[in-house]
Amino acid sequence: MNPMQHHMQISRMNTQLQNQQRFMNNMMWQISMNKQIKKTGAKYKFGIVSLTGETIVSDKKMKVSFFSPLDSIVIVDRKNGKQVIYPKNTKSIFVKQKQGYISGIPYNNDSNWLFRTDSVGYVKFYAAFPESGLEYITHFQVRDNDLTSVTVESLKSLVADYPKALKYLEKKNLYKALSVYMKEEKKKLSKK
Length: 192
Prior knowledge:
By secondary structure, the protein is an alpha+beta fold. Helix content is about 30%, strand content about 35%. The strands form three sheets. An eight-stranded antiparallel sheet has the order 3-2-7-8-9-10-11-12. The protein has a two-stranded antiparallel ribbon with strand order 1-4. A hairpin with a 4-residue loop joins strand 8 and strand 9. The longest helix is centred in the first third of the chain and has 30 residues, at about 5-30. The termini are far apart. The mean pLDDT is about 85.
C-alpha cells in the first residue's frame, strides 16, 4: 500500500469514527430522554427517489437495527434486481407506515438519512429511523434553517415560551420537555 492509499484509508476510518460518535451521541440523548425505547429494530419496505427523479420501491422488506445510522439500504425490485442504495444516490427515501408515509433526506454529508417523523407549526422533527415517537427524535428544523441536533441547549430557545417544558429541560428530561412543547403548540394552533 503506497502512502497516499494509506492516508486515504485512515481518512475514511476517521470519517466513519466521527459518524459513529455523532450517532452514539444521539443514542445517548435518546437514553437521557427518560423514555424507554420500545424497539431496537424493525423491518421496512423502502422506496427511494433517485437523483434523476426515478422512484423505486422495494418488493421486499429490509431489517434495520437501531444501533447505527442508516447509511445504506437494499432495494429488491423486479426491474432492477437487488441494489445497494446510499444516501448520496438519493433525493429522498420513504417508508409507508400505518399513519402514512415517512420520508427521509440525506444528511451529514450524505453519510446517512434522517426521517421527518413529526411536525408542529413551523418546526419539523427528524429521527434516525422511520419510527414515530418522541423517543426516536434526534434533530429538529425551524422553518428552513439548518437541522439541529436535539440537546438541552438547542431546545431552550424552542421551548422558551413554555415554563413547564423549561422545568423539564432543567432536569434534563428532554422527552417531557418536547412532549409539553408539542402538546402546547398543537393546542395553540387548534385555537387559530
